Amino acid sequence: MRLTAAQLHQRLIHAQAEAAKLKIELKRYKNDYHYNMIDQLQAENKQLQERLEQALNEKHKLSEELAQAKANSYEHPPPPNEAAPAADREEEVQEEEHPSPKEKLQESTFYVSHRTAQHESTSEMSPNWFSRNLLDRGRSKKE
């Protein structure tokens, strides 16, 4: 079954209209809040993975230095000091090792970064995605 030139032209027009319609729908999806959120979360995930990798490298380096320092201290023990100053040092160390729970919470990297990231994302995205979606809905009704 052969198609005439007019039929082929009609099919071409129909295919072009369908392609334009799908491009508009794709544009709407790209501007949708959830798709933007996925992009943001992927970028944040990448940053957090890089920070985790850096922290692991630093931890590995510090553990090697600690092992080396322990090995050196076993080979060359320090000379004994007076008993009274050593007791004072132990009390200072114990005080430093046990900070209050509130300080631990404030120093926690996850807690602080999560708290600040949450405020930034809501303040940045709220007006943009809402107004953009309203505009897109208004445009799609007109078309």
Can you walk me through this structure?
This protein has about 140 residues and is mostly helical. The protein has a domain at about 10-35. It has helices at about 5-30, 35-75, 85-95, 100-105, 110-140. The two termini are about 35 Å apart. The model is unreliable at about 120-125 (pLDDT under 50).
Concise account of the structure shown:
This protein has 143 residues and is mainly α. Helices cover 88% and strands 0% of the residues.
Q: Indicate the low-confidence ranges by residue numbers.
A: 119-126
Q: Which H/E pattern describes the elements?
A: HHHHH
Which bin fits the share of residues in helices?
A: over 70%
Q: Give the termini separation.
A: 36 Å
Beta-strand fraction estimate = under 5%
- Output the number of helix runs: 5
| Biggest sheet layout | none
Strands, total number: 0
Mean pLDDT over the residues: 76
Rg is: 32 Å
- Apparent shape: elongated
- Secondary structure class reads mainly alpha
Region (Disordered): 62-143
Biased composition (Basic and acidic residues): 96-106, 134-143
